[in-house]
Amino acid sequence: MPLLPEATYCSDSVSHMKHDIWTGLVFRKRTDNRHEVVDLTTMTPEEYAPIEHKKQEKHSVLVHDIRGNEFEYTIEKNGFQYVRDEVPELRDCSDDDEIKKILIPRTEELVRKVTGATKTLTFANRIRCFSTDENKMAASQAPARSVHSDLSIVGAWHLLESVITDPAELATLKKGRVLVINVWRPLKKIRKDPLAVCDWSSVDLKNDWITTRMIFPHGWNELGHLSHGDQQRWHYLSGQTPEEPLIFKQFDSAETGNGGMTVPHTAFEDMETVECEPRLSIEIKMFAFIPDSA
């Protein structure tokens, strides 16, 4: 599917001076049940959607703009990091497949540089280019507007075992440090639906974190949801451009005692840009492996 033409986007007259934003974020309702199971072998995603909606609640949250201070936040300390990475080849691209062909290897190289990994393996990618999408769950190409993480600790190990099927290779990789990294990059300067990330050091795992196992006809995945907490610190980068990808952890085997550092994130609404056309962005998810130095 071709990308939306440049002419449909808001002009640079839309203000993107540094500013914090009060906005409503969609959280999981607080519950004593810290682990949910959703069986999608007995219902369709469309049938489950209203059930999911009843589990959610919206809270007004201040999302801090870290423009000008973005380099104070690191993937090791906060679970996320904005980096400068110019890809001139993207400027003339208008085809999804061509964009992915350029960006996937380039992004793996970037992650190896940032994390020190010696091996990376992309397992998912998606271009988002709609405001809303009738497709549900993982098939949607609209921004994800509820607070979530892509994996739990159990879900990350399960995914690794499904991707690496050679037992000897799997055993070797598990001896080192295993990361799951999501790299989120605008394909045009962000006007509408920017991405917010929650500083992992502000997440109260005992009280705020809920894991959800999704069972599909072909297998299962386990992700994370977050209940609202006043201590949580949310951040974004105003006017984010294609040269400013966001790298954030969705799992770190070195942090399993601290919840795996599965950073919560969500698209959010900026009332100044709600009339703009849908944003264009790509997310590339990969394993990154750091060998055991011992």
TrEMBL record:
Domain of life according to the entry: Eukaryota
InterPro entries found in the cross-reference section: AsaB-like
GO molecular function: oxidoreductase activity
Family membership noted in the UniProt record: Belongs to the asaB hydroxylase/desaturase family.
PANTHER family named in the record: BLL6449 PROTEIN, OXIDOREDUCTASE AN1597
NCBIfam families: CmcJ_NvfI_EfuI
The name this protein goes by in its record: Methyltransferase
